[in-house]
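Let's practice the habit of predicting before peeking. Look at the sequence and jot down your guess about where helices and strands might fall. Then scroll down.
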Amino acid sequence: MRNQLQEQHRLSVLSLLGVVSVLGITPFAYLRYLQDNITAAIIDLVLVLGIITLVGYAIRTKKTRVVSGIVALFINGGVIAIVVVNGIDSFLWVYPVIASTFFMVKPIEALSINAVLMVVCLFLPDVFDVIPLNSFVITMLMVSLTTFVYANRSEKQFHLLEIMNTVDALTGALNRRALSSDIAEALSISERKATPYMLALLDLDHFKVVNDKYGHDVGDQVLQNLVTITTANIREYDRFYRFGGEEFVLLIPEIKDPQAFINNLRIAIKKELKTPDGKEVTVSYGITAWVPGTTADSWLKSADEALYQAKANGRDCVIFSDE
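Done guessing? Here is the structure:
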């Protein structure tokens, strides 16, 4: 889910850059053509067409991280080319390119690209016969550092927004919004690559008794402890979600022995998850594997039916849907 939020953000920035390039650069290409400055007109046109092509590729493939980096390098190279060809008249384009770079890539990466751009600019012919070198260096540093601070702050706020959108506030597990997105992605991967995903639906046994006997504060702590224990006993690329109340979902990609994996998790939780007076809290599991034609609803329904069977079998057990 977090990757999707970043992808959508980068895609919106790339799309905006595409619109700005068409509206902002195309008139200059036409004007330079009328002035018989054909080389500059061609460079402008290549910049516009290149950006549009890259944005279209990003929209089609969703490879926004890679495309954003390519676009950042492309526009920086383009501005150098147009300044070399057109001279001092196009030098001011350096500044919007500096700012745009920070919207394409990570702040520290943009700062590095800007540093290279500034060094290259120092060797451009005739520019500093008109513009004082110290003024150029100071303004470049001011624009770069100011934009860096803004971009760095925005990145932190975006990360916080991602957490708020994808993480359950009480337990720290991923939430249903993240689950919905990740299931769709898992189904897509499974259909394309036949990746053997497993989906597990977990439910705390007799959780109402815990809440009634010890209070909801203790119940909340038990839920938090469950998440802590579970995340410590699964792989880093497994995903754990709070589905609602005391129900959780575990999304497991490519595992050789799912029965041993889930049973080890069940035993670890039974051993470590306790009430304040030391009584164990157990969990029941309904597990279902991806098969061709699986949908999000059918996957969850199959796991829920297996979980219901686990409850009927006395709880604290694991039932696979194919059993």
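How did you do? The chain has a mean pLDDT of 90.
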